[in-house]
């Protein structure tokens, strides 16, 4: 039973984000670029820690990078408005591809450091992440289950499964863009992908909109 209904961070969903041919080109490219993916490190720590995160990532987007940057910049005014993000617009973008296979997950975390001893973790020196956006795509028929993006209510980042903590789950649906403030605690729920074939993984494009914070 949920003891308290705590406020959730704002989350924006943009269905059918890319045009059909753009979505297909990205999927084809990622499948062909399997060798570029490496075990993911924890956000701005250079170590791989499978107790906290199991997934594959690459910052290499090939020839699709200019198109993807343009789409993400086009979406920015709507994402800022709908998440209630005030202040000057972000000054740079950080892009990364992720592939979650069988048994993959990313335990609860925030995409920027918060609290004592924090330092900026944005794309350029001094910049911080302001908004986090994730674009989901996969082959049809979909071969994985789970992998929901779980956003938690305000409060400390949960250490472990905390079923009492108010949360909202977003299904990583085909061609969906989701955005939320980078300070919001969230996780990727465990993925099941029988056969563990790379082309059937849960694919995503992570985008962080960055600027210096006052
Ligand atoms: O793939 C997702 O749904 C979120 C990924 C994430 O939280 C991250 O890479 O920081
Ligand atoms: Fe994250």
Question: What is the second-level CATH architecture?
Answer: Sandwich
Q: What is the helix/strand order?
A: EHEEEHEEEEEEEEEE
Q: Gyration radius, to the nearest Å?
A: 16 Å
| Ligand inventory | 2-oxoglutaric acid, fe (ii) ion
Strand content: 25-35%
First and last CA, distance: 40 Å
Largest sheet: 7 strands, antiparallel
C-alpha geometry: globular
Tell me the CATH topology.
Answer: Jelly Rolls
- Uncertain spans, ≥5 residues at pLDDT below 50? none
Number of helical runs?
A: 2
Strand order of the largest sheet: 1-11-7-14-5-4-2
Description:
This protein has 214 residues and is of the alpha+beta class. The protein has one domain (12-211): q2cbj1_9rhob like domain (Jelly Rolls, Sandwich), CATH 2.60.120.620. Helices cover 15% and strands 30% of the residues. It has helices spanning 20-32, 65-83; strands spanning 12-14, 38-39, 53-54, 56-58, 92-100, 105-109, 128-137, 145-146, 149-152, 167-170, 176-181, 186-188, 191-192, 202-211. Fe (ii) ion (FE2) binds next to loops.
